[in-house]
């Protein structure tokens, strides 16, 4: 059996063997596969399988099904430690990404996307749980910002290589997917063998947890998932379909996003710590309303490619403030609820994601601008919910509607 080390003792280990080092290692590995897959995806599916708006909607619906089923993590951690599950899921993401270009048809792409998505969503579910268990509350916002920056830095290297070499060396999709996915899989193997199994001080409940006092967190997760799908599915697709962006141009846009994340993610983490989750989320949602309405203007009023590209970068930066949602839950949660609630929250986050991309794919065929106007409305609902977050949330005072009395068990 592999060594199990209490978290308090683990923090006395050499720096590169501590739990935070493992979090950083996985934070570097995951986006190399996932972000490279995303950067090439729109060009790949259009060139290899002649996807239209409906097809891309169905692809992302299939991709989000494992997210909807993330609650299954609760059953798996009954027989497998969270840390092990996270590493196995990371390896699956890497292997499936490496095989993406082997099946250049609608059915093949949907199948391999399902496998990579299982790896991605189960990794993200466990990773979020481990972050909130392993990071102290007083430093969590800043550390989450640095973890985002680390992931952006790793992906930056991958994107620079794609931009510089795609046309210069006439690269193909299979080679790029093999290299990026293979890297993630290799790092997952290293993460498994190089670190002991860390034991958090609060045993996690290994059953589904739904508590009334977490209702605002659930609602914000639901709206976040619905809103995010429109950006993930259609913002990049617009750049290829409407403006004819090639692979190196799309990757260049992603590259700008990464540099912005590296610079601003730690600052955003400090801002959440300084001003609180309520102010951070209000700022995010107000900004997203403006961005999505401007996206609609690109279609309704013919605003140009420069504005569309700028909106894409600004949009991506606003989403970095989602770390405030994690730390809001960390402040209101019972310590033993973190793992099961992370799984439940991931499922709630993906309820809309299962049907929304496919449904909006048909709307896209009729009115692309209408898709973004709808997203602005979703951001407005999120804003209304964010206004209910207290300035200093704690158990028993989870929303501004709560009384300052001990919370009920449910």
UniProtKB/TrEMBL annotation:
It comes from Sediminimonas qiaohouensis. Pfam families: MFS_1. The chain crosses the membrane at residues 21-46, 58-77, 84-100, 106-123, 144-169, 175-195, 215-240, 252-273, 280-300, 306-329, 341-365, 371-390. InterPro entries: MFS, MFS_trans_sf. It comes from the Bacteria. One of its GO terms (molecular function) is transmembrane transporter activity. This is MFS transporter. Gene3D superfamilies: MFS general substrate transporter like domains (1.20.1250.20). Keywords: Membrane, Transmembrane, Transmembrane helix.
């Amino acid at each position: 059996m592999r060594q199990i080390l209490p978290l308090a003792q683990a923090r006395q280990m050499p720096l590169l063997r501590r739990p935070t080092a493992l979090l950083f290692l996985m934070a570097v590995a995951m986006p190399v596969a996932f972000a490279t897959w995303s950067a090439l995806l729109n060009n790949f599916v259009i060139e290899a399988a002649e996807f239209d708006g409906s097809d891309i909607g169905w692809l992302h619906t299939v991709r989000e099904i494992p997210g909807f089923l993330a609650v299954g993590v609760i059953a798996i951690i009954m027989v497998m430690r969270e840390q092990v599950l996270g590493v196995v899921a990371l390896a699956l993401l890497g292997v499936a990404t490496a095989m993406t270009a082997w099946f250049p048809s609608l059915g093949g792409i949907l199948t391999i996307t399902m496998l990579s998505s299982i790896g991605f969503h189960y990794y993200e579910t466990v990773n979020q749980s481990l972050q909130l268990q392993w990071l102290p509350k007083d430093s969590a916002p800043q550390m989450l910002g640095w973890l985002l920056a680390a992931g952006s830095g790793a992906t930056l290297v991958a994107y620079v290589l794609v931009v510089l070499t795609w046309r210069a060396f006439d690269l193909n999709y299979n080679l790029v997917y093999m290299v990026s996915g293979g890297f993630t899989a290799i790092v997952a193997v290293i993460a498994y063998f190089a670190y002991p199994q860390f034991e958090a001080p609060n045993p996690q409940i290994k059953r589904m947890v739904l508590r009334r006092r977490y209702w605002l967190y659930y609602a914000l997760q639901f709206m976040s998932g619905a809103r995010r799908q429109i950006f993930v599915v259609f913002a990049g697709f617009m750049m290829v379909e409407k403006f004819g962006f090639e692979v190196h141009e799309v990757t260049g846009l992603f590259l700008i996003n990464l540099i912005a994340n590296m610079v601003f993610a730690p600052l955003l983490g400090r801002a959440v710590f300084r001003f609180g989750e309520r102010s951070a989320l209000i700022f995010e949602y107000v900004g997203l309303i403006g961005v999505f309405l401007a996206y609609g203007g690109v279609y309704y009023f013919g605003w140009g490619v420069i504005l569309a590209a700028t909106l894409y970068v600004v949009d991506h930066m606003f989403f970095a403030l989602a770390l405030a949602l994690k730390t809001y839950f960390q402040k209101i949660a019972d310590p033993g609820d973190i793992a099961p609630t992370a799984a439940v929250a991931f499922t709630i986050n993906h309820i809309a994601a299962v049907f929304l991309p496919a449904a909006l794919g048909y709307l896209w065929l009729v009115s692309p601008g209408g898709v973004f106007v709808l997203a602005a409305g979703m951001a407005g609902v999120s804003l209304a919910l964010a206004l209910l977050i207290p300035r200093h949330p704690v158990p028993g005072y989870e929303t501004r509607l709560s009384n300052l009395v001990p919370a009920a068990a449910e």
